[in-house]
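Quick question: who can interpret this fold?

. . .
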Amino acid sequence: MSQGAVLEIESRPSLLARIGTAFLVIATAHFVIDFLATLVPSSLGLIEVRCGLSHEQAAWLLGLGPFAAGLSQPICALISDRLRTRILIVIGIVVAGIGFGMIGLTTNSVTLSTIYVVGMVGVGMFHPIAATTAAQLHYDRRNSATGVFFVAGMIGGVAGSFVWPRWLSDNGGFDSLPYIVAPILLFALVVHRKLKDITPIKQHTWHTSDLSFLRGNWTNVIVLYAASSMRYCINTALLYLFVRWTEQVVSAEHAQWSAEAVAKYSAPIVGNLNSCMIFGMGLGGLFGGALVSPGKEKGPLIWVPLFFAPLVALFPLLGIQISYLIAVFAGIGFASMIPVSVALAQHLLPHRANLASSLMMGGAWVVATIGPRLAEFGVTHFGIETTFALTAAVLAASGLICCAFREPTAPSVAP
């Protein structure tokens, strides 16, 4: 029974149980991390009112999240690759828990931004090493394993998008946030203990011919990185557009309401839209990982974004109820190929698997920092309908750019 080169083949009956438990813990940790990460995007309107932010400031705040998480990912991945350690998974959970818990203690925009950056750095520390570990535990089924890991995070995102706006809309909701820190720290301890049960990451000896081929794979990785960056920009732009579109619809129906009343009424709707989008992301990731066989990734990378792009353009032309369904389709369109890209990048650069994961996730998230700001600029200067259409065009482009992907001509080596 092969678990790739990461795990030695053992005859002990406990092997599958240990692998299964470790994978379950990693997936659960992804649920927790992504649950926390949705706090600000799903409750942006409430945070605007609480901290006195302008729409432009809110867009920059939303962009800080992917920038902080994205920048920390390749740095932490390089450290993890060099030291052959998974401890940054645990540290990331701790930092994220403390950061997001402390958001409830501030009403100042500068302090809020600082604390949010701390929380998102923790999110960034966690993702590349956890994603690599999930794929390494089931390397022969790496697309499926990465897909399940991805879906666990999406379920956390759906839950967070549903819970946070309702929690924080209540009086005292923000004040109760620090109480989440203690259970997060206890969970981090559980994760640490379970990670110790799996085989340490091993170094490998590479032949000159192997290294030459692996260097050639960087061209493909660059193509995947560009496509991933576009997809994440769509994600962050939609997070902002959902807020503005919902508040625009609510304001049109209740012109006499104050900004605070509109924000409180809109927050659960925005949370629902985020939940639907994340549900679509998880659904797409699950089926993408399960249906796309290793070595057959190029076709789906091209046509899936092209197929769903028109639906994103239709979003602002429909009512709130049907918009939930379109949000699901949007999530499928830009996210179904994310786990496939992560697993493929790991396969192309097995000697830098954590770095490869970080480029497809955090490295692309750095670029996604501009998504909310571009969306705000588009809404201000072109209108919300045109901005949705431009977002759809970016989704289509993320598929077309994958035409430049060249199928590997020789097998790469498992990490």
User: Anything to note?
Assistant: The domain at 14-198+207-404 is CATH 1.20.1250.20 (Growth Hormone; Chain: A;).
